[in-house]
Amino acid sequence: MADIQRSKIKALLGATPGTDVLVKGWVRTKRGNKDIAFIALNDGSTVFNIQIVVDKTKFDDGLLQKITTGACIGVEGKLVESVGSGQAVEIQADKIELFGECDPVRYPLQKKDTSFEFLRTIGHFRPRTNTFGAILRIRNQMAFAIHEYFHGKGFVYWNSPLITASDCEGAGEMFQVTTLDLNNLPRNKKGEIDYKEDFFGKLTSLTVSGQLEAEIGAMALGEVYTFGPTFRAENSNTPRHLAEFWMVEPEMAFYDIKDNMDLAEDFIKHLIRYALTNCYDDVKFLNDKYDNELIARLESILADSFVRLPYTEGIKILEKAVADGHKFEYPVAWGIDLQSEHERFLVEQHFRKPVILTDYPKDIKAFYMKQNEDGKTVRAMDVLFPKIGEIIGGSEREADIVKLENRIKELEMSRGTLEWYLDLRKFGSAPHSGFGLGFERLLLFVTGMSNIRDVIAFPRTPKNAEY
Ligand code: 4AD
Ligand code: MG
User: Fold this and answer.
1) Averaged over 52-79, what is the pLDDT?
2) β-strand pairing of 223-231 with 176-177
3) Strands of 176-177's sheet, edge to edge?
């Protein structure tokens, strides 16, 4: 097979027949009769397989028997127009090389059970299924689209640290990073753990958000964005939470809350449009197999402007729904942190389109949000999506040093790790805003999957860290 270059199946399926080609991939199925075998081969480049037609008289029987579902092979042959239905071209095999056999009895993907739950237990084979191939290709395309979008707008890709001493969201959900011997912890005179002895000489954790450090970037480079993993030790075993998830966090100098909302809406629409244009085969596959409203739902996001509504108005709508007999599991009152049932009611039943909820009570939002004149609310903005609930969380940032210091005191936060953050307000402060898009929440929406464990190759959730 030395002289022919390997082609990707995706390219061959759109190529003109008549040439000799070489493909390499994994057998999805093999069927046929005593004279001919048909092998469906997939190499991960597309959700579609290419059909290999094997004239059994030309090949050794022992070799053909080893070509079972899951086996890895290379095939050289002629690309010809297909006589069968279902594909435009197929390959007439001249040479077959077996790279890796696959025991049909022990290979778990042979099993009848292909439920999402079962597939989660075999994360090392799951990407070989059509469904996960499609999801992981979409994930890849969306990552590219994110970089392309911000690059096109002149934003600078900014890398906030993953190991940090500051708790951005102040929710105390951080995973500690330490090299101390947990069985023999150094103590100071007060009997407290002496972090001076630790690797970094202080208490450090994995970051819950790159925002605070991204603000440093915005105050120097103007418009920046992060795109990386974040970590939260939230003990919530829900279909929408991961302990390790990816977040995109743009942070912009001179943007007020309205500019921030405009960017968020344009950004998310761009990503959905990109998926429909550049991942159509994979999205269509998922639409046809699992959720035949998926494409319509994606298109509906593009059709209309998002609703922009203050939290207080949102609460009034929910209270009216309760008065009219709608049952929520969690009570509704001004001041509550909205549950996803509340968010989804507003989006799916009341407005029937995405909602950007603004001006939340300050007590349920993080310390850095710009305080409104009413003394009760902050300039927050959450983008709420059908089927998902909150997909983006963001705000205008408090740029006033006095107000920010007061808030830090009110919340009894330790100022020690935030001096540098306060400095940004003391030296050349600027109005600025930003938001965070949960990458896996976006992928849930774009793929139509209902569990966040199925849109990331290696989900990290409570009591689960395989691989
Ligand atoms: O609303 P959050 O907590 O906002 C922040 O972290 C801000 N610092 C962002 C910013 O302004 N730069 O998180 C942002 C988004 C949420 O809207 C949600 O989509 C996602 O991150 N998210 C999660 N995704 C998966 N698993 C979790 N445990 C998540 N927690 C938040
Ligand atoms: Mg949030």
Assistant:
1) 97
2) unpaired
3) 163-164, 204-206, 176-177
- Is the CB of residue 399 less than 8 Å from the CB of residue 279? no
Distance 337 CA to ligand 2 centre (A): 10
pLDDT at site 2: 55
Give the pLDDT of residue 227.
98
Overall size of the chain counted in residues: 467
Sheet holding 244-253, edge to edge: 156-157, 223-231, 244-253, 432-438, 389-396, 377-385, 355-361, 307-310
pTM for the model:
0.97
CA distances from 373 to 312, 322, 359 (A): 15, 30, 11
Helices of type H across 73-198: 116-120, 130-152
Lining ligand 1 with CB less than 6 A are 168-169, 209, 211, 232, 234, 241-242, 245, 247, 249, 390-394, 434-436, 438, 440-441
Token representation of residue 9:
């199946």
The predicted model gives 402-410 an average pLDDT of: 96
Q: How far is the centre of ligand 1, averaged over its atoms, from the C-alpha of 230 (Å)?
A: 9
**Ligand 1 atom 1 nearest Cα:** 393
Q: Which residues of 325-354 are buried (b: 16+ CB within 10 A; e: fewer)?
A: eeeeeeebeeeeebebebbbbbbeebbebb
Closest atom of ligand 1 relative to the 392 alpha carbon: 17
What integer pLDDT is reported at residue 396 of this predicted model?
A: 98
- Per residue in 146-199, pLDDT (tens digit) is 999 999 999 999 999 999 998 888 888 999 999 999 999 999 999 999 999 999
Give the number of the atom of ligand 1 that is nearest the alpha carbon of residue 234: 28
CA torsion 75-6-125-91 (nearest 10°) is -40
Q: Pick the atom of ligand 1 nearest to 435's CA.
A: 11
CA 130 to centroid of ligand 1, rounded, Å:
29
Contact 263, 242 (CB under 8 A): no
The per-residue pLDDT for range 344-397, each reduced to its tens digit, is 999 999 999 999 999 999 999 999 999 999 999 999 999 999 999 999 999 999
